[in-house]
Amino acid sequence: MQNLTPPLRRAATALALTALTALTPAAWAAFSITTVHDGNNAARPQYIIDTDAGLVFKVRGYDNGGSTTSAGDISSLVYQGVEYADPSRGTQLNSGADWLYTGVSAVAVKAELVDAAGNTTPAATNNGGVVTGSDYIKVTLTINSTRGGKFTHYYLVKRGEPHIHMGTHFTEQPTVHGQVRFIARVPIAKLPNGGPAGTPGGLTSQGTWPEDIRGTSYAIEASDVFGFPAGHAYAGQSRSKHYANMRLKDWQFFGGTGPGVGMWFWRGNNEGNSGGPFYRCLLQQITSTHNELTYMVNYGEAQTEPFRLGVLNTYTLMFTNGAAPTAAPATDWHRVMGLVGYVPPEGRGGVTVAGLAGRVPGVPYTVALHNAQAQYWAEPDPVTGAVQIGGALPGNYTLTVYKDELAVQTLPVTVTANTSFALDTVAINNDPASTPALWRIGTWDGTPKEFINGDKLTEMHPIDVRMAPWTVAPFVVGQGNPATQWPAYQWKDVNNGLVVRFTLRRGQNTAPLRLRIGTSADFNSARPQVQVNSWLSGVPAAPPKVTRNLTVGTYRGFNRVFSYDIPASQLVVGTNTLFINVASGTAGTRFLSPGLAFDAIDLVRLP
C-alpha cells in the first residue's frame, strides 16, 4: 500500500471500510467528513474522517447500548487500507465516554471542518453527506455530570498528517473509575510488538516487553500481575501492564509496531496531570488478543497530589510506517480550533534561574513548578545550573529543586503572561547529605536505586526470580556494600528485623546521636521502628494509606525522613547494634504486607 499514489491509496482505504458501512464514492474525497447512518437510521450517525494522509477513522455519534462501546468512540481506524480498531472493543475514553460519571450516559458528539481563520462548517446531517475542506477537522465530545461538571474531549486533524490530536478538559474528575485515560485496543495480529528500548515498557535485554502477558497462566497478584507456568522459558518471571512505566520527565512517546505500521502516543507537556516529574503509571498491555495503548491524563495509583481540573490536556496518536517518531507533531494550529481551556504561547509565562549553588557533582537535578492548577519542570545546565521553564500558565507557584528525586530547596514564584520571572542563583540548603554523618548507608537522592534490586524495581514483581533475595545478613558499617547487602524495600512479612552493626570510638557516645531513616514510599501505613542496643524507639505516627506501589513498578511516593534521638547512655564504645522493623497495624501478607522503600540511613550528631 505504501507505493500507491494518493488517489489509489484512498480508494484502497475505502474498500477496507466497505464491510463496515455502505458509502457513496463521494465519501472518499480528500480531507473530508462523511456522515453515515447505521441501519439507515438518522438517530445512529457516525462520522468518517479522511485525513488525506492514508489514515481514515470513524467516530460513533450515538450510544449503541453496548457495554464495551460508546458514543464518542473511534469505531474504525484504518491506516494504509488496514483496520486497526476492534469494533467490539472501544478505542475510547476510560471505558467509554458514556460511563465517566455515575448516572450519566448522554454524550454529545459534534463534527465540523475548521478553516485557517477558525471558521467552522458542520458535518452533513444526511446519510452519505460529505463536507470537504483544506485545513482542519474537529470532533467534540461533551459530557455533563449531575453535579454541574463538564467533560470535553476533542479529536483534531490537520490535513495531510496521519495523526489524531486529542485534547481533554474537565471541570470535575470522573466518578466511575476516578481516572482519565484514552485507550486504543488494537488487534494483536495487527500490532504484535511493544516499543523500542528506552521507551516506557520498551524492549528489554532479554528481548521481551515487561507488559507482555502472552504465555502467562496465573495471577501473581490481584488480576493484573501474572506469571508463567512451570517449564516455560520464562517460568518464575512476572509480567504486568504496571511495568510499562517510566518517570514522566523521561519519556515523550510510547507505542508498538506491526507489519508496516507503528502506532504511538506522543505526550504533551502534561501540565494538567498530577504527581510531578517523577510520577510513574501503567501505559500499555500486550495480551493474546490486543495491544492496549493507554494514555493517562491522570491516574490515582501511587498518586502524591490532588487531581488537577480545568486544564486542557493535549496528546497525539501518531501512525508511521513502523519507525518511532523523531519529532513532536506541530500544534501551533490549535489556536484557531476553539478549544475549551486553550491558552496560546503569548498568554503564558516562565521562570529563569541564574544558577544552583550547592549541587553535588555527578548527581542529576530537576527544577519544577507546581500549584493546584498545573505542573512543569526542566533540567538545569549541568555546568552552570542555570535553568529556564517556559510555557507556564499564569499564577503563583512553588519552585522546587530536586537532587535526583529528593526535594532539597523550595521557594515561591509568580508567573505572569508573556514575561519571565527571573531569579538569581538559588542556594540549596535543605539537602540532608550536607549534614556530616558518622556513617551513612545509601545516598540521599529520594530513591532506593543504589540498593539490592534497585535496578529492577520498576520492571518486575518483587517475587520475580530475577530479583536477588530480599533477606540479608547484618550490615556492617565500613565493610558492607549497599548495592549487594542492603535491600531496596522492607516488608513486615518478608524481611523484617533488618540489622546494622556500627562501631563508635571513645568520645562519640558522650552525647545523644540522631538516627535518620529516609524513605521514598510506604504501603499500608508502614513506618520504621528502631532498636539500638537495648533502647527501643517509639512508633512514629502512621502515614496515610495509599494504593499499591512497591509491587506495581514504583518506588515513588512521599519522601519522608524519620528521626530518632538515641540517648548517650544507650550507646557504647565499640560495636552497637541497630534493628529496623516495619511497624503498622494494617494486616497483609508477603509482598502486600506493610512495606517501605529506603532512600538513605545515617547517624549524625544533634545540632
Fold and architecture overview:
There is one protein chain. This protein folds into three domains: 297 residues, Beta-galactosidase, Chain A, domain 5 (Distorted Sandwich); 83 residues, Sandwich (Immunoglobulin-like), CATH 2.60.40.1120; 174 residues, Galactose-binding domain-like (Jelly Rolls). The protein is 3% helix and 38% strand. The protein has an eight-stranded antiparallel β-sheet with strand order 8-7-10-11-12-21-18-17, with no helix packed on it. The protein has a six-stranded antiparallel β-sheet with strand order 5-4-3-2-1-9, covered by helices on one side. Strands 31, 33, 35, 38 and 40 form a five-stranded antiparallel β-sheet that branches. The N terminus is likely disordered. The chain has two helices and 40 strands. By secondary structure, the protein is mainly beta.
